[in-house]
């Protein structure tokens, strides 16, 4: 069983490595100092960028990733367009409360339970993480915000829009998914790359932490995703203005995931970018920032 666990750890760590773009490896992002507050009963690390009078935009990152993974250029690009960014570390990553005491779920067993329609083990849920973010808005006395999430962060953002629509000016779902089971799996190339990455040393793990990734959280966050299941039915009833952005070359959540998200959400706008995988490349970033601004600018903030 220990060998099986080590294999899963290597696979999950490899997944994280696939999400690190060359740009993020080459330079460290400079973000404001983190604050820490107890919200929704959880110790959450957060910071802000932009002017206080800017239009609020809540930024939610993905699997095992802290706010750093957005990258300084992406965030300053939004600030330059007049947005006030609220950046948080999801529970279990970055400066936020860790759930190591809960332990590591047995992934193969929980994946089997999910396939059989049984409830998976979970330390927390996507709804819990969404409630953390909404409680942070309460703390900051922000009634409504644009909610932007990438990958798992997009799933959390969708959950906020479903469960707290009155707090959402618009939903911006980037390289994410509805969770529908008929959607395509990761490419063979991605799976092969994951399997071929060697086990990581403590030195490499420290470097990954410095870049904003926390592999220890990934099994627990995967359980949160599995527990959430398929959001299609709920998304079909959504009345929140929605922009869906996806990479045409995404090997982890192929393009169909983004297309399906836009198809099921009423009146959602869909934008895809060639050359974009499961990341935000330097040459795609300006177009993505312009697409976000063009979509959300006409929407009232209050």
Describe what you observe in this structure.
This protein has helices at residues 2-19, 22-26, 72-80, 107-115, 126-139, 152-163, 188-196, 202-210, 218-228, 232-235, 255-264, 285-296, and strands spanning 35-39, 42-49, 55-60, 83-88, 145-150, 168-174, 242-247, 269-273. It is an alpha/beta fold and 302 residues long. The longest helix is centred in the N-terminal third of the chain and has 18 residues, at 2-19. The protein is globular. Residues 1-28 and 191-199 have low confidence and may be disordered.
Task: Report the major sheet.
Answer: 8 strands, mixed
User: Radius of gyration over alpha carbons?
Assistant: 18 Å
Helix/strand order: HHEEEHEHHEHEHHHHEHEH
Q: Determine and state the CATH class.
A: Alpha Beta
Structural class: alpha/beta
**Secondary structure tally, helices:** 12
Shape, per Cα inertia axes: globular
What is the CATH superfamily classification?
Answer: Alpha/Beta hydrolase fold, catalytic domain
The level of helicity is: 40-55%
For the residues shown, what is the average pLDDT?
A: 85
Count of domain modules: 1
Q: How do the strands line up in the largest sheet?
A: 1-2-4-3-5-6-7-8
Strand share of the residues?
A: 15-25%
Stretches where pLDDT is under 50 for at least 5 consecutive residues are 1-28, 191-199
